[in-house]
Amino acid sequence: MESKTFRGDFFKILDKFKSRESFAFLRFSDGELRLLQGKELVLAANYNKIGKRVRKSHYVEEDFKNVNPTDHPHVYKKLLEAYLHKQHNYYVGLSCRCCVGNRDFKWMVNLYGGEDEFLTWSNLVVNANYPLFRQHFIPELQKRRVVFVLNKSADLSGLPFKVVKDFRIGTNCIVNDFDKWEEVSDWIREYSVHDHVFLFSASSLSNIMTYELYKRYPYNTYMDIGTTFNQDMNMKSVRSYQVGGKYAKKVCVW
């Protein structure tokens, strides 16, 4: 297998998007990594908790999470299914070694079953690739029928493309909106939705929804785009890579 590059994988996905070849792109970042490892994950106003480790931190309500694989085994089971699923053009983005360390990176690759062409970076559209994402994907999104799954507080009026349908989720959506994919699935089936682009900005729930929908309706494209449009939607949750912070020029490595 040829060596992966951060920029190379980005343009591979972009080429599929521009040619209207359907695919799914999921993002298993550090939070999803910890959940897959069976650890409790709490993001609260003034602290975070990962397993038994508690640290002071600050989060806005949009980012709040409270998930424990022991208390929410259905969440853990479905997230694991989404991570291990194999299907043509089903791209699983994982946390790279430069972000979580070599040990956790190898753990994720081994859990997946080894490297293959559909394993990529969870950071593929952020960090140093974020300007490329804005430059190349926005003009393409302006040509497509876009469906957006996103936070209930998001304002769509500032987006640089049109949205034909939106589905809203709330705080701690991975638990509280666990079955949201069923509502979206009913809509796809009822209106025979084809060749649409489904964007997800729904934290860990994005992976479960993408998994369930791409299995059933592989003739649409499904992308977890994380926080890439938060500034356009007047969201409080803005990331370092968006404002010239330390991750803005970070080229992730495999």
Widest sheet, order of strands: 7-6-1-11-10-8-9
Instruction: Give the structural class.
Output: alpha/beta
Count of individual helical segments: 9
Domains counted in the coordinates: how many?
Answer: 1
Order of helices and strands: HEHEEEEHEHHEHEEHHEHE
- Main beta sheet: strand number and arrangement? 7 strands, parallel
What fraction strand?
15-25%
Portion in helices? 25-40%
Protein described:
There is one protein chain. α9 links the parallel β10 (196-200) and β11. The protein has one domain (6-38, 84-242). The strands form two sheets. The chain has a seven-stranded parallel sheet with strand order 7-6-1-11-10-8-9, with helices on both faces. It has a four-stranded antiparallel sheet with strand order 4-3-2-5. The chain has nine helices and eleven strands. It is an alpha/beta fold. Helices cover 34% and strands 19% of the residues.
